[in-house]
Amino acid sequence: MRFISNWGILKILQKNDFIPTLLLLVLLFSCSPALKVTRVGSDTATDISGDWNDTDSRQVSRKMVAEMLAKPWCSEWTEAKGRNPVAVVGRMKNETMEHINTRAFIADIERELINSGKIAFAAVGSDRDEVRLERIDQLQNATDETIKDMGREIGADFMLFGAVASFVDQAGGEKAVSYQIDMYLVDIEKNLKVWAGQEKIKKVIKRSRVKL
User: Fold this and answer.
1) Which of 124, 126, 152 shows the shortest CA–CA distance to 138?
2) How far is CA 169 from CA 8, 176, 205, in A?
3) Quick one: three-class SS letters along 92-158?
């Protein structure tokens, strides 16, 4: 089958006045451009849709963890106890209308906390369950010298909670989205909040109109 360009199609259609103008427009604008994929660095900031993305998760985690560990509670607790505090991440709520991968967000937070060297992290959820099953398995299959004892876990001292909310202001082809991320740290033994932080992100998305 011979290839005919868009310009060739236009010339043919112009000779046939009975073809509606609408059909002409449909034929011309239905030709989708070829897909192009460009690899970029994983730390490259990308905003295509304007929605919450990996860049937001990474940047918020870094800023809020740095702020949290810089406050007096951390150094005061470490000095009083003679060791680094142990923490776990609790509920991280998504209060936006978007789908936000909160598991990935929690993973970013955990990584920043662990790599800071100022706080130890206890396994939670399915990770903790698998470790406990491994200890049970060792009782049956490992040598006496390498069996890990039951009941020797380090209990967490603090639990981190958080929520991501959004506010949308839209008119015509322009939209402003503001994300508000709130986090607070709770002393598990005393049930006291020892730190509360907030970070905000604002994005303006403009959609240009198609000009014919």
Assistant:
1) 152
2) 45, 5, 10
3) EEECCCCCCCHHHHHHHHHHHHHHCCCCEECCCHHHHHHHHHHHHHHHHHCCCCCCCCCCCCCCCCE
The pTM for the full model equals 0.73
CATH of domain 52-206: 3.40.50.10610
Q: For residue 144, give Cα distances in angstroms to 107, 169, 193.
A: 35, 64, 43
Region of residue 87 (left: phi > 0; alpha: psi -120 to 50; beta: else): beta
Can you read off the two tokens belonging to residue 107?
């993973």
Q: What are phi and psi of 11, to 5 degrees?
A: -60, -40
The 10 Å Cβ neighbour count of residue 6 is 10
Q: In this structure, what token pair is assigned to residue 141?
A: 């299959």
Q: Where in the chain are all domains bearing CATH 3.40.50.10610?
A: 52-206
Residue (of 199, 183, 170) closest to 52 by Cα position:
199
Could you read off the pLDDT of 113-165 as tens digits, one per residue?
999 999 988 887 788 889 889 999 998 999 989 998 888 888 899 999 999 99
Residues sharing a CB contact under 8 Å with residue 86, sequence separation 6 or more, in sequence order? 119, 120, 121, 122, 154, 155, 156, 157, 158
Read off the pLDDT of residues 69-125 as tens digits, 9 standing for 90 and up.
999 999 999 999 999 999 998 899 999 999 999 999 999 999 999 999 999 888 877
100 residue type, one letter: I
In what helix (H) or strand (E) does residue 178 lie, and over which residues does it extend? strand 174-187
